[in-house]
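Quick illustration for those who missed Monday's session on complexes.
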Amino acid sequence: MSEIYRASTTAPVNIAVIKYWGKRDPKLNLPTNSSLSVTLSQSDLRTHTTASCSPSYPSEDALLLNGQAQDVSGARTQACFRELRALRQTLEASDSSLPKLASYPLRIVSENNFPTAAGLASSAAGFAALVRAIANLYELPSSPTDLSRIARQGSGSACRSLFGGYVGWEQGAATDGSDSVAFQVAPASYWPSMRALILVVSAAKKGVSSTTGMQTTVATSSLFPSRASETVPRRMAEMQKAIQEKDFETFGKVTMMDSNSFHATCLDTYPPIFYLNDVSRAAIKVVEVINEAAGRIVAAYTFDAGPNAVVYYLEENEKLVAGLFKAALGDKDGWKGARGDKVESNADALQKA
Ligand code: DP6
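Prediction with DP6 bound:
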């Protein structure tokens, strides 16, 4: 019986406050703009992945996600496998005593403990965990930056899940993608009172995938060019300054405006893409009511490619924000909804960023 080599890891989701939307190179997953996110590292929203390899495995690489076999022949997964194997081969070439793991078939087993592909950044956690699990298996000396370059080719947003805390993804300028990597703006401990409330409006798979959606937006939206070339670069600078200064008013305002701008370009896409629904819009209203009552910005919503809301706030405002959401959610039939939706409004859903 041949030996089986194995390594496991987990990777958390990240939720962008400045959105990545648009690729200048779809093959290498090079974005049209930089982006910035918060990694929800203390939350339950993570992917657990075990990577193993063995000469005794069937010749094809295999990937199981939540118990279901996935197609690994896609260019993105193949790119990650290829790059990681090449790094392992370099190690093996320099030390002949190392087992020849790069030549063995891979078996990847991943579990998400949250809805897959429902706009909750599942591909981000998924590819980040896949890349790190294989890097661990191969005992690669790669840095998180190196791994972010590889994970980006699996799913753009995945590069940001290789770091904790407040994380940027520099769009880069190189045509080979060598400088399109994630970087840490600040560790979670720098601004530890940040919290994220996740409202699972719908656990259904999203109608339009991010990849398809953003390509159609780039091709058809007249709002898109100014978003990518002017609005986002300005907001990236504002957001980094807000994080450095722990200025929630600016952090919150820019977060909400960037979510609105992203969804405006989706609506401006032809044919239009609607990710928000009535429940999402009601969540926006609740945030507005909370901020009006407080007389300042204490809560900030953001939505990815789906209807689920993520509301950022500081721990000191937990009663105000989470309390009002609870009250609002309790009063409305529509929240639980005909879709059999799950609305997380209790303390369990308060994810510590
Ligand atoms: C709206 O990273 O899922 O969540 O690179 O095609 O896999 P691909 O796209 P993906 O897109 C994420 C889009 C977003 C915004 C963000 O996370 O920045």
